[in-house]
Write a structure and sequence with these properties.
With 187 residues, this protein is mainly α. The chain has seven helices and two strands. A two-stranded parallel ribbon has the order 1-2.
Length: 187
């Protein structure tokens, strides 16, 4: 048996501020983009980010705004916009989504890896998404939906997701030998 100690909300807040600070040399204006103003955990993390920003180490970092992604999703015209809206509604109501995913979990992981391997090779990840038939808006909407499903369902089906992830990871390692990539998205 393995015990995984949970983190704390304050540690998440400080870690996010530290990550941003390290990237910008601990000075400059920053903004927070969060999913929705009704997400209790994210609002708690934002609260602790604001506390962390008062520490001397971060005195030259200025929070200029907090913006919520659901505003962008509400205006989306992408091919997965209804799925993003369903995820936002489900998140706000703390419920599971009411529709089946528009792509398989395996296909979603393939999109993740295609752009990650493209970026690691110095290629434009936007072009990699286009080669998959996706625009940035499509990708954002699809990720909002699939991310919510994974977050909501991870505890119940972790083994299933791990199996799919390892299978796709092996497929892309064979497709792009010698390239190391992870599935964090960077544009």
């Amino acid at each position: 048996m393995i015990f995984v100690a949970p983190t704390s909300n304050s540690l998440i807040g400080v870690t996010m501020v530290e990550s941003i600070g390290a990237q910008i040399g601990y000075k400059g204006q920053i903004a927070i983009l969060s999913a929705t103003p009704t997400s209790p955990n994210q609002n708690t993390w934002i609260k602790f980010m604001k506390v962390a920003l008062k520490l001397p180490k971060y005195k030259n970092m200025q929070l200029v705004t907090t913006v919520y992604g659901n505003a962008f999703q509400a205006a989306s015209q992408g091919k997965f916009n209804t799925y993003a809206k369903e995820a936002a509604a489900a998140r706000a109501a703390n419920r599971d989504v009411n529709v089946e995913p528009p792509v398989s979990y395996e296909q979603y992981y393939e999109y993740l890896y295609e752009q990650a391997y493209a970026a690691k090779q110095g290629k434009d990840p936007v072009e990699a998404l286009k080669s998959c038939g996706l625009t940035i808006v499509d990708w954002t909407d699809l990720s909002a939906f699939m991310g919510y499903i994974f977050t909501r369902d991870a505890g119940r089906n972790w083994a299933k997701y791990q199996e799919i992830h390892k299978r796709v990871e092996a497929k892309f390692a064979a497709k792009y030998p010698g390239v190391k990539a992870d599935v964090d998205i960077s544009f």
